[in-house]
Amino acid sequence: MPTLLRMPGIAADTATAILSEWQVQENIPYQKDDALATVETDKALVEIEAEEAGVILGLLVQAGTEVQIGAPIAVTGVVGEAVDDLDAVLRQLGVGATETAGRQDGPQSAPTTGRRLFATPLVRRLAQEAELDLHTIEGSGPGGRIVRRDVERILAERAEPAPVAVVAAPPEHSPQQHAEQQGYVDEPHSRIRRAIASRLAESKRIAPHFYVRATCRVDALLALRATLNSAGGQKVSVNDLVVKAAARAHTLVPAMNVVWNDDAIRRYQQVDIAVAVASPRGLVTPVVRDVARRSISAVGAELGELAGRARDGKLGQHEIEGGAFCVSNLGMYGTEEFAAIINPPQSAILAVGAARQEPVVDDGALAVGTVMRVTLSVDHRPIDGSTAAEWMRAFVGVVENPVQILA
């Protein structure tokens, strides 16, 4: 018997989500745990998995559509099942016309053709600006999806040389054509990029930032890394050691492991550390749990796995939530020093620069040492300056005596 597949609740504070991409097609069976669709929230891409084997009898929402949580997005059935009249099935399931408005494309729709369009929001905007009917375009993307090159091909075929005249009115151009003539391209904001901009702007506006800076000698830290990696097994990065050192500093100064709420300061017992990862879709901060009590190899392995899935847009919502602290490392790009913006609701973020050889003073004598500059951005509401300074002293002490990381 046909049943409705509804948009699942991805996060507690999310009322809508974008159905980014369908992973299945109508009338083609799928298996239990297969990915049916990819959903985009403010923070991550999440896959909707099949609870049991079945078949899609009808897709109700096109890719790129923003959908209310709980709204129907497809009609499913058992393997081998088919329907002749999808609208009749929807009426039997109690679904009104307003709930399936996403099945068609408004002014560009052609319901008599029976063809469902699959195109990104960018392609739809380009087609609308050029007054193209998407139903007349054959898509060259996967599964017949209409992609940007299909629209550009039609526009190129349509173009003709402008007539030569002594006096001619300037031609009218679409915004896209004007942009190309001026030498730039406007890329529409993704949901995640908008969320990043809103969240960080709010952080600078609401959270009173202050900054604590320090310079660490990292010769011993680099030597420890070389020793650990020479033993084989899971390779350890400098960033892995920095994350462990930050967690160790949290255990030494537990007053830093807090966040600000409207009614109280929340103090965490477990040290969870978020790590900033650059992805094609924007900054993502997966959270490594219980860092202080886990081995460096376990932390490094999970961090590497989370970072890889962050770049691929495969993180779950629960993997990017929680923690009171974040580490942002730009040292691999050669950046010597910078200050980062706190990622709310966290209360602090450590900006880590590159390790460089510089002149240092050892016991009154000039020598060459490897140093790393770090900047701690702190929310002054739950954390006092003296607490942040104490934490920084503890962190530098751990980095310069890294055997504590292994404790």
TrEMBL record:
PROSITE patterns: BIOTINYL_LIPOYL, PSBD. Residues 118-155 form the Peripheral subunit-binding (PSBD) domain. Its EC number is 2.3.1.-. Gene3D superfamilies: 2.40.50.100, Chloramphenicol acetyltransferase-like domain, E3-binding domain. Its cofactor is (R)-lipoate. The keyword Acyltransferase applies. InterPro entries: 2-oxoacid_DH_actylTfrase, Biotin_lipoyl, CAT-like_dom_sf, E2/Pdx1, E3-bd_dom_sf, PSBD, Single_hybrid_motif. It is an enzyme of class 2 (transferase). Keywords: Acyltransferase, Lipoyl, Pyruvate, Transferase. Pfam families: 2-oxoacid_dh, Biotin_lipoyl, E3_binding. The keyword Acyltransferase applies. Residues 2-77 form the Lipoyl-binding domain. Belongs to the 2-oxoacid dehydrogenase family. This is Dihydrolipoamide acetyltransferase component of pyruvate dehydrogenase complex. It comes from Mycolicibacterium mageritense.
